[in-house]
Amino acid sequence: MKDKYSGLQIAIHWLVFLLVIVTWCAMDLRGFFPREYRPWFNMVHVSGGIAILVLMVARLIIRLKRPAPPIVPKPKPWMTGMAHLGHLIITLLFILLPLLGLGLMYNRGNPWIAFGLVMPHAAESNFGLADLFKEYHKLLANLSYYVVGLHALAALLHHYLWKDNTLLRMMPRKK
């Protein structure tokens, strides 16, 4: 068995990471710019979310077909359990967040843009459902800050404190 994830898995992981940063920044920084730029920030946020959804589903399919490379030295069972739980939470978050966002945008009942294209919307708005999706989207987005932070902290602890190959398995190959 190989000691690293495949090049495709590594690329998807780091591309999702970059898209998450861009998507967060599009919402968190839009208030610093004049209002006429808000549609651009919204488009970047929505487009990033859709791209994250597609990549997370692809990553999940690839992961189901290709086992993880072993961690050397082998961690304690509780660490493995926590890692599986953390990855499950991250996967669910970055699939649910875009789905909630898409539901929100669709149910507003007016045109919205992703990737520069006008996307489909409900013939009649359903603000009750849109507001519910927005509430859960915001809640999970705020949770995602902490989950991603814990994920990064765990990777660094594995590398520097426990001195195993957890982090190295997901690093791009050197040429």
Automatic annotation (TrEMBL):
Domain of life: Bacteria
Places the protein is found: Cell membrane
Keyword Iron among UniProt keywords: yes
Entry keywords, A to Z: Cell membrane, Electron transport, Heme, Iron, Membrane, Metal-binding, Transmembrane, Transmembrane helix, Transport
Biological process according to GO: respiratory electron transport chain
GO cellular component, as recorded: plasma membrane
Stored InterPro entries: Cyt_b561_bac/Ni-Hgenase, Cytochrome_b561_oxidase, Di-haem_cyt_TM
Topology of this chain in the membrane: Multi-pass membrane protein
Parts of the chain that traverse the membrane: none
One Pfam family named in its UniProt record: Ni_hydr_CYTB
Any one GO MF annotation of this record: metal ion binding
Cofactor(s) required for function per UniProt: heme b
Similarity comment text for this entry: Belongs to the cytochrome b561 family.
Protein name in the entry: Cytochrome b561
